[in-house]
Specification:
This protein is of the alpha/beta class. The chain has helices at 34-38, 57-66, 84-94, 104-110, 117-125, 152-162, and strands spanning 2-10, 13-19, 24-29, 48-51, 102-103, 138-139. The chain folds into two domains: 2-66; 84-162, Winged helix-like DNA-binding domain superfamily/Winged helix DNA-binding domain (Arc Repressor Mutant, subunit A, Orthogonal Bundle), CATH 1.10.10.10. It is built from six helices and six strands.
């Protein structure tokens, strides 16, 4: 399978995105792990990476997001390997407007599974599309930051970008 790769930089953040002919495969924030460099960017045997030489609509949308504007891209996602539950969580979270937040409980109720708060958190921890599926907009009940696969500092930074700030003052986690 052939994947295309793009890299966008802004607001002190590096965003990498990979696409297949089906749609967006993955987004990563920060440096690509050195392990990928050791394999010349080939993540799995049989996968060929083609670096996009021209600016795509997705690259432009990501660059605008890093400038503090809503992500104006609603392209398709390559959801192979994503469970039905994860898909419903991702769809609900993708609908959270720029600059707004929800709780894990809000998302669980939105998908009709009010008792599945922890499962929602686990699905978001495995979100392969951060920014596009904006899991950083989901917080704990009471306003605690909660987890984020890219780390709490990145979650805080993305929320700050969406609020036109350089730092975001959220209640510190307890316990």
């Amino acid at each position: 399978m052939k994947l295309s790769h793009l890299e966008v930089r802004g607001a002190g953040i590096v965003v990498h995105a990979w696409r297949s002919p089906v749609g967006l495969v993955a987004v990563r924030l920060g440096a690509v792990p050195e392990a990928a460099a050791a394999t010349k960017g080939q993540p799995v045997e049989g996968i060929e990476i083609d670096t996009e030489s021209d600016r795509s609509e997705l690259a432009d949308a990501l660059a605008e997001y890093l400038r503090g504007r809503p992500l104006a891209w609603d392209g398709s996602l390559d959801l192979r390997g994503v469970t039905g539950f994860q898909r419903s969580v991702f769809e609900a979270v993708r609908g959270i407007p720029f600059g707004e937040i929800r709780t894990y409980g809000d998302v669980a109720r939105r998908i009709g599974r009010a008792g599945a708060v922890r499962a929602v958190g686990n699905a978001l921890h495995r979100n392969p599309f951060p920014l596009v599926v904006p899991c950083h907009r989901v917080l704990r009940e009471g306003g605690g930051l909660g987890g984020y696969s890219c780390g709490p500092a990145m979650k805080r930074r993305l929320l700050a970008i969406e609020h036109g700030q350089t730092e975001l003052d959220l209640r510190e986690e307890t316990g």
